[in-house]
Amino acid sequence: MELNYKVEGLQQAIDKLQRAGKKLSSLKAWFKIAGLLVLESVQDVIIKGGEPKWPGLKLATLIRRGAGAKPLRDTGLLMNSLEPKVKRSDGIWDQKKTSLSVGTNVPYARFHQFGEGWMKRPFMVLQKAYEEKITKALDEEVQRIMAT
């Protein structure tokens, strides 16, 4: 006994998937959007004073810097280092065809992020709302690519 089943249009579907795969092999535009949203999330964390909230500054720090001092914001150095500049040579924004790395080159940043000898104040945080925006942007980019 033999059962034969013919699928109509299978080759066309395979061809369409192969073309889509080639188009999707570079999501450069989406990586740029995602990187901007990551930096926006990090800046928002710093402005809000942590997510969750960081401990307040020590009394000695407040005396030295003034009562209005805010963690990671006094000089603006860290915040300004998080500005997206696509053609940077300092490794803060490293975009490739299928990846993107964002960060900061401020020397003391890692001490705050990981609590190495300093008060731990993680600021490189991708908040849930921004994660959702990045996912939505990916969905929209894939739909745009597939429509062409």
Offer a few descriptive terms.
148 residues; mainly alpha; two-stranded antiparallel sheet; 6 helices; 2 strands; 50% helix; 4% strand; elongated
Query: What portion of residues belong to β-strands?
Result: under 5%
- Total of DSSP H or I helical runs spanning 4+ residues: 6
Summarize model confidence as the mean pLDDT.
Answer: 84
Rg: 23 Å
pLDDT < 50 stretches: none
User: How are the strands of the biggest sheet laid out side by side?
Assistant: 1-2
Could you spell the SSE succession in H and E letters? HHHHEEHH
Q: What characterizes the major β-sheet?
A: 2 strands, antiparallel
Describe the model.
By secondary structure, the protein is mainly alpha-helical. It has one domain. Helices cover 50% and strands 4% of the residues. It contains 6 helices and 2 strands; from the N terminus they run ααααββαα. A two-stranded antiparallel ribbon has the order 1-2. The longest helix is centred in the first third of the chain and has 21 residues, at 28-48. It starts with 9 loop residues before the first helix and ends with a helix. 14% of the residues are buried. The model has no long low-confidence stretch (mean pLDDT 84).
Please write out the topology.
Layout: H1 10-24, H2 28-48, H3 59-65, H4 77-81, E1 93-95, E2 100-102, H5 109-114, H6 128-147
Antiparallel strand pairs: 1-2
Helix pairs in contact: 2-6
